[in-house]
């Protein structure tokens, strides 16, 4: 269960965007689910979601901060006066060092804090999330291990226990490069769709998985992760090295071809001259 000794725990979603809706779809069979979002759709109640205000969200057993990293402090400020001792606050951001520091500094000392990063999104999880991965960072309290057990046993996720530092270091490569390359490929469109290779098709599938992510997700991955900039710098430096290598090799091959052509032309000159004489 999400909470020990709770048959029907309450979970409050602070934010109901694309990822908040994905969370709701998989959690609502297991808990009493409340959600707050200024743009909460009118049909949320029909889907088993209880519309609530921040005070009601804060009163839940578990509070999930399903907001952009840039909006984390604002969400905490709305919740903080209403959180009760022992509440569990969970974030789902794509980076972990910054949000962990923010939650430790701005949440009350008597609430537990768990950092999570589902390593999937609305596109990659649209056909189900069983077998997909989620990173969990225990930050304050022991609830991270109970949540990990629920996610593993009930939702079928592959749980990776880690630290914010280790998470961001790996995510800078895993997510940072994926999203960066995808953004560049999208800007190169139109791209071939008919005469493609298997490897190109896989690249396009990866691009489609992140194409519709909000700009806030991309900026968090690339700018809020302190390890992302060095990875980008190395990637672009290696790309420049490769371009220089190809340009140098190409120029050398062109010069070599031209010399070979010139030599062949010199050898052929007498023959051509002789042919010209015969023709006259």
- Give the mean pLDDT: 90
Distance between the first and last residues' Cα = 101 Å
Strand count: 8
Largest sheet, order of strands side by side? 3-2-1-4-5-6-7-8
Strand content: 5-15%
Contiguous helical run count: 9
Provide an overview of this structure:
The protein has 280 residues and is of the alpha/beta class. It has helices at residues 18-27, 54-58, 72-79, 97-106, 143-153, 164-187, 198-211, 215-224, 228-279; strands at 10-14, 32-36, 50-51, 62-65, 88-91, 112-118, 133-140, 158-161. An eight-stranded mixed beta sheet has the order 3-2-1-4-5-6-7-8, sandwiched between helices. Helix 3 runs parallel beside helix 4 and helix 6 (164-187) runs parallel beside helix 9. The longest helix has 52 residues, at 228-279.
């Amino acid at each position: 269960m999400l909470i020990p000794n709770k048959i029907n725990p309450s979970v409050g979603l602070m934010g109901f965007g694309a990822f908040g809706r994905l969370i709701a779809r998989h959690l609502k069979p297991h808990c009493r689910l409340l959600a707050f979002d200024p743009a909460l759709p009118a049909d949320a109640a029909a889907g088993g979601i209880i519309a609530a205000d921040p005070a009601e969200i804060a009163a839940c057993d578990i509070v999930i901060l399903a907001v952009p990293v840039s909006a984390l402090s604002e969400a905490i400020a709305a919740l903080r006066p209403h959180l009760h001792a022992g509440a569990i606050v969970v974030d789902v951001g794509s980076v972990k060092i910054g949000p962990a520091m923010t939650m430790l500094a701005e949440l009350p000392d008597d609430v537990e804090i768990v950092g999570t990063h589902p390593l999937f999104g609305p596109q990659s999880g649209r056909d189900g999330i069983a077998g997909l991965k989620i990173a969990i960072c225990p930050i304050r309290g022991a609830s991270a291990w109970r949540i990990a057990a629920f996610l593993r046993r009930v939702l079928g996720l592959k749980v990776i226990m880690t630290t914010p530092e280790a998470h961001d270091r790996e995510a800078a490569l895993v997510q940072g490069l994926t999203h960066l390359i995808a953004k560049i490929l999208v800007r190169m469109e139109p791209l071939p769709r008919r005469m493609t290779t298997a490897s190109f098709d896989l690249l396009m599938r990866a691009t489609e998985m992140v194409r519709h992510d909000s700009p806030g997700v991309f900026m968090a991955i690339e700018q809020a992760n302190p390890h992302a900039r060095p990875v980008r710098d190395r990637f672009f430096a290696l790309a420049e090295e490769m371009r220089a290598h190809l340009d140098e090799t190409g120029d050398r091959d062109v010069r070599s071809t031209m010399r070979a052509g010139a030599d062949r032309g010199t050898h052929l000159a007498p023959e051509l001259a002789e042919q010209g004489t015969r023709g006259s």
